[in-house]
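Data deposition worksheet. Section B asks for the primary sequence of the deposited chain exactly as it was used as input, without tags or linkers unless they were present during the calculation. Section C holds the resulting structure in token form. Section D is free text for depositor observations; keep each observation to a single sentence. Incomplete worksheets are returned to the depositor.
Section A, Depositor: J.P.
Section B:
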Amino acid sequence: MGTIIQRLGHVIRSIKGINVEASPTGILVNLPVAKGRRQTVKLTAARVPGDSNGMIVARLVSRVGFADNHTLVRKLLEFNAGRQRYGLCLSMDCDPPAVDAVACVPIDIYDEGLASRLWQDIQEVGRWADNLERQLGGGDDDL
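Section C:
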């Protein structure tokens, strides 16, 4: 799996205006999203525990803001209702807890278009997280 992630990082790194930090287990992609704004998306991959077919899932995460009041947490939970492809979660590794946009997508390691598809997912999660960040009144400097 590490080689898939590293290859993807190498492919994305060749795109002008994109900053990539890659390791065997994940990549951080900082990309332009809108009106001079940038967003960072973290991509990691893991085998699905208990799956005998060796299914791999990519997890894409981008920080949206901080859950510093109960009203915001309630709005976030309401936002999640009925969502299937993307969701919001609380990251408890900071105080106040951070709000992260999260997407999980299955990976077929034999798919010749895998890098292209994951790049599209990275862009989509970055734009989505940035849009939510703006709605919540946050900014890139706040995160």
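Section D:
The chain has a mean pLDDT of 84.
The beta strands are 19-23, 26-34, 37-47, 56-66, 86-91, 98-107.
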